[in-house]
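Incident log, entry 3
Record: Amine oxidase (409 residues)
Problem: checksum mismatch between cached and fresh output.
Input:
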Amino acid sequence: MKIAIVGAGLTGLSCALELRDYNPTIFECHDVGGLLASYGRKGYRIEKFYHHFFRWDHDLLNMIKRLGLSSKVVWKIAKTGFAIDGKIYPLNTPLEILRYPHLSLMDKIRLARFTLKSRKRDYTIEDDRGVVEGIREELGENLLQKFFMPLLKAKFGENYERVSYAWLLARVAIRSNRKLSGEELGYLRRGFWQLVDRMAEGLNIIRKPVENIGYFNKKYHIHGMEFDAVVWTAPLPLLDPKIANNLNLPSISYQSSICALVGCEKPLSDLYWINVDNAIFGAVIEHTNFMPFEDYGEHLIYLASYTTPDSELFRMSEKNLANLYLKDLERLGMKRRDVKWIKIFKAKYSAPIYEKGYLKKIVPYRTNLKGFYLAGMFSKPNYPERSMNGSIKAGIEVAKALKADFDLS
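Fresh output:
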């Protein structure tokens, strides 16, 4: 049994581990680890895009345990806040929330009720309703503009109006178990590169893009090699049109990610996550307010933006992007002289946009082509929260589907 896996992100790697007895061949044209790939500095490695996990991420935690990395797991309360008009407001404790000046007491009560109710609601019935419409009708214009709009723009960029209300309700439901002092998050001390390296160890990874997939004599053909089955885990827009046209795939729109990683002499605040209104980035993630400064020897800050693959912002040069990011970082109080370096990372197809009707578009693992499987960001485990856990779970589940179809024990 010869199996090809396209993509060496977490879905591709976890799928390969489940199929290890059959020595699958993995094709990857970029960094192993995908969005979890790391950037090397002198003395440490750090993820190109910010990452953390939650207590309920059982598939990820099981993988960490399986690979002997459980001793590296760290849990901390992550402090969060909002930045409006250049001022940062912490929003963690009940007292901080009560003091927040941009929402009335009645708005805060409405928001608390909405959060509690979301745990019990059937979010699927709101799949065809827009998120802006849903918030406006249920919570009012002020909560929409002053609270949810910065969050939506931080998560989806200019695509926020296309998002389904079902996504928001589902997301609030799974993220509503905060402690009084803030949200508890997990990290792998000194970096997720340890997880990626251990997952990839001993696997047959070929560093080539897969632009063409042939099918004849009941075999799939990639780079002159024959395969009985193919598992595609890369973004759907990269799929060979000859194959894609035969799969009856739904039309799924993708967003792009731009993340600036900044090394600084000083922290910006004492918070981990700050949602930012009216800036080129939607969120500031201060990594060294979460993990020890001593692990890196400098303060590390992520500045995260979301856009579309064909946007002017995504096409902009690293130099021009860096200037724009640093200008907005200065508006929040960071002095330019305290910035040691900045590095820009881009992901053209980082995730689907959870637009209206998306629940009907979630792609199953099996396709109408025998031996051809799909798994990744577009799979059910990555809704409503695209995550490391969802990607690993999708890889495990698609491998189980393949083994069942080919009667592999």
